[in-house]
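WP5 quarterly update. Target: Oxidoreductase. Source organism: Mycolicibacterium arabiense. Length: 249 aa.
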Amino acid sequence: MTTPLEAKVALVTGGSRGIGAAIAARLAADGATVAFSYARAADVAADLGKTLQARGLRAQAFQADQADPASCTRLVNEVVTTFGPLDILVNSAGVYQTGAIDDPERDDAVFAEQLQTNVVGVVATTRAAVLNFNDGGRIVSIGTTGAAQAPFPGLGDYVATKAALAAYTRAWSRDLGPRRITVNIVAPGAVNTDMNPADGPNGDFQKSLNSLNRFADPSEVAALVAFLTGPEAGFITGTTVNIDGGLSA
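Structure tokens (predicted):
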């Protein structure tokens, strides 16, 4: 079995379900020791850890609230204490909430949570991580194609958080380039997860927006992340890589 990430230590935030879980499983299968975080679903995270460990893979769950910068810093410190300095950080934790700018019923608390998790938490986690990062490491954040185009109404708050993350990514690539640490974004289109199932009420509409008329499987997103965190992606940095079935064509 090919293990391109052998001896690497990876942290995947929001790694207990959906895209994050697929990424955690793929990086572990590629040889990395994987720490993955969860916010509330301890049982789900524990099950994933047991499943991966039963396959002989090195993986462990850690609790963290990605909306709380102090919790993000504590997460990184716990992982480093357990496994040693990081080689890979995947910022997968995120909140997705929609709402039009002129909606009189909008909940400002929802906006604040989305901003805290998708931007403030990512910044806090990355800042803590790079202080404990091996040179030549990899940082990948999960974005969205909506950061460049909004295909339907009500996406403003969400896509703005991801656009901010794309700007940070470009800047961080400059900051960390001298250490040969690459920083990139993977931007999925529709992905079949429990939060956005392909057979859900908006599934057919979302399929119709891309060239392949289907949802991605989380494993397809994980495969792209695995490439960007691997040894052959050392000259890719400061960019966004779409995986959207042609949505942005």
